[in-house]
Each structure stands twice: as structure tokens, then as C-alpha cells.
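Note to self: keep these together.
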Amino acid sequence: MTLSNEIKQLAARAAGSERPVRIIDADVVSTSPLRIRLSNNEKLVLSSERFIIPEKLTDYELSVRTPRGTETHTFFNALKTGDQIVVVSLQGGGMYYVLDRKG
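Structure:
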């Protein structure tokens, strides 16, 4: 599912909700294990199980077909300690979707 489709689904669910989707600034406290602190509650540091992290914010490989054949490229784009990020609070506040890095 694409990011735009996921955001549309979140917005549609929020429309009928008493607690709509909230966009929250956050920062990465550690990477192993991944822990993220929400800026609206400095004392609340959450583990990776509470976050949906898109592939573009991980280390990943991509195979590309070229005239020379198939090439595999590795992208090192995982979240790092100190990264400032933007997250979306899913309905009910139990899960969060990491939108992107800030800046």
C-alpha cells in the first residue's frame, strides 16, 4: 500500500472518530533497540513495536533492470539516534506511523 493511500485511510477513519489523527514531532532516542520520544510528552519513550516505519526510512535493497542486466543497490537510510521526525498518531493513540524526517 502506498503512503498516500495509507494517509487517506487514516483520514477516513479519523473523520468518524472522536479522537482524530494527530501529527506529532518526535525524535529518535536510540536505534538498537529503536526507541522514539514524542515531543508532546518528553517522558514517554516508545519502542519500535508501537510504530509503523515506511521502507524509505530503513536500510533496504532495490533491484533495478538496466541495459547491462539487473543491478542491486543498497540504500542506507535507517533512522539514526538524534533524528527529528514527524509521526501520525493513529486512532486511539496506541500506534504511530512515521511520516518522515524533519528538514
